[in-house]
Structure formats: structure tokens, C-alpha cells
Amino acid sequence: MNFFDAREHRDPAERERDLLARLPRQIAHAKANTAAFAGLLARVDPASITTREALATLPVIRKSELLDLQKAARPFGGFSAVGWGAACARVFASPGPLYEPEGARENYWRVARALFAAGFREGDLVHNTFSYHMTPAGSIMETAAHAIGCTVFPGGVGQTEQQLEAMVDLKPVAYTGTPSFLRILLDKADEAGITLNLSKAFLSGEAFPPSQRDALAARGIHAYQGYATADIGLIAYETPAREGLVIDEDVLVEIVRPGTGDPVADGEVGEVVVTTFNPDYPLIRFGTGDLSAILPGASPCGRTNRRIKGWMGRADQTTKVKGMFVHPGQIAAVVKRHPEIARARLVVDNPGLTDRMTLCCEAADDAALREQIVASLRETTKLRGEVAFCAAGTLPNDGKVIDDIRSYE
């Protein structure tokens, strides 16, 4: 069996119908059972949100905003539908600290699908080196492995010598953790003349370029990467096709222009915004702050869901100019005022160590339009800026709304 379940290879139209049928029910559930969405979506009729276009009218809740929301209403900012007790098996702290609940359901984070695509199977012994201390990564991988039928050794982080000793004794075939810690273990094993039994790995938390993948494959370890967050769980995962990351079956992913909630065209880089169908922590239009883009077509592996390119950087490009913060949302607001602008990016440099803003616009060069844009930029940011026109399609497709190229040398 090459698939975790039949949903992975169903007709894409069937999947879309299923997601959009679930969407109004999830929004109604979030409104009825969480204080945050009861307020945020007070004027929204859940029954009317049956298309991606309708979903795009709802506000984006960004991870960068969640800390302040949680501080105002501990522990979860009013976004959790469960409290302490049997329905909430664990609570974790991520950097910030942000707090996330873990429900009691099997495979709560839905990462089992990704481990299965990476070759993990029932009866495997998995050496899990993600942290079990305060943060959820260790539990995310362990619960996923258990859902497949694997046994887990809770290695956690550090104590390299003791971990190697256990790996020699127990001979795990699978590894979960970061690429860098796997390299440390392998290097230490080489130094000690130890041969490990690993043949498969699921990696996350760091970049995993093809050069590292190929180096591990040369050692007989077939490694795959996944994209998950402590708020959402699994978002997308790598398959044997090695062409982008396939989106999970239980999330609805949008790519939006940074600083806005506006979806971009397939192929254009933007912020990953996710709606989850988790009943315990029902996040609607959650802005991850990560950049990616939708890949065209279906994966050669046979999975028919949409794919993203993978992690392509951070969407939060807020910068400080002459002591004032400038946000991507402000630049988006300027662009919306002037329909002549196809795309734009604010370039910040400092010739002579003096901050300068230049709004590069894909639009026809026009003196009157230039003056109007300069006025909008000043009104929106409270800072004086310049405008430069360029031809359509010449701005890089990298998701950047603000490009800070200042040098202080």
C-alpha cells in the first residue's frame, strides 16, 4: 500500500467539495465554542462561507499577533474550544511563550500521514530526537508514529553519547528530528566506529536542501521533510516524488499577499494562511508568517492534493525607517489606492547612512500618478518616500513587499 488512506488519491474536485462542505460547519463551531471567534466573526453567517472567495473575506489571524491576544486572555487567547480536563491531554509552550493545547484524539497533529509517506511502517522502532521538554515537537512525532503502529524511543535533544549507545543496543530503523542533529549523531558514530541501523528519516524544524538529502541517501538513509506548526499540526509533507510538499487532507491552505488577506495567483509567492478543521483548536485563516507558493499540477507520486514549494522565508517584513515602523500592510494599502499599480515593493536603503524609501511600482511612468503615490505613501507611513516605475513582470516573485538593503559598513 503506497497511501496512508484513500483520500490521498481521490479526485481533486471531490476533495474541494468536501473541504468547502466542512468549512461552514467549522466556522459555526468556532463561533459557538470559542470566545475569540465569537467576537471576530460576530457578523458572519457561517452558512454563507462555502467558497474560497467567501473565505477570503474573513480576517487573517497572524501568528505574530497571537502572543498579544494570549497575554490578554490566558492561556489560548480565547481560540481554544477545550479547557483543562480529559479533552486537553497536554499543554505546551512555544517561544514567546505561546501556548498550544494537545487534544486527546489519536494522531492529534495529523503527522502520521507524513511519516507514512516517508516510509515509516507498523513495527518500526523510531528514534525520536525532538524535544519533549515544554515544546510539542516530541509529542507531535511520537503520537504520529504510534498511529502507524511504530514503537518510539524518546531520545529528545542532547546527550549524544547516551543516544548512540541506545541506538547501538536497540537498532532503530527510523529517525525523527532536525537534519543538524542527525548529522551530529552520524559524525559521532563515525568517530566511534559505530554503524547505525537507520534506513529512513523524517526531518523538520530546519532547512533540508537536496545536497543534505543526497548525502544521507549515500549512507542508505532515505530522508523526507515535513512542514508543520504547533498551532496547526501538519500543513504539507514531502513524498517520494521529491517535487514540492503535498498539502495535508485536513487543512485548507491559501497563499496571500503579505500584510493582507488577499489570495495571490497560483505560482506567486505569498504568506501561507491555513484553516484547520481541528474541533479543539479551530483556527480560521491562521497566518503562519511563512512564505511559499502553489505548484502547478499534481504530484507524480499519485497523491492528487495541491502542492506548495516548501518554506521560502518569512512574510513579516516589518522594518524601521527613521525611527518609524513600516509594515507590509501599509504598502498594500497604498497599492489598493492606485489600481494602475500591478505589483509593488518598498526598497529601503541608506545612501550616506541616511534612510531612504523607494516604492518600486509595476505601472506606466506617469508624472501625475507619481505625485499621487508619493502622497499616499506619506499619508500611510508618515514618512517621505520616492517612487520608481518599472515594467510589468520585472519585480522578483519572492513574496517580498519590503526589501531592506541598508548597509552600515
From TrEMBL:
What InterPro entries does the database record attribute to this sequence? AMP-bd_C_sf, AMP-dep_synth/lig_dom, ANL_N_sf
Task: Pinpoint the AMP-dependent synthetase/ligase domain residues.
Answer: 137-275
* Any Pfam family: AMP-binding
Q: Which PANTHER family match?
A: BLR5969 PROTEIN
Entry protein name: AMP-binding protein
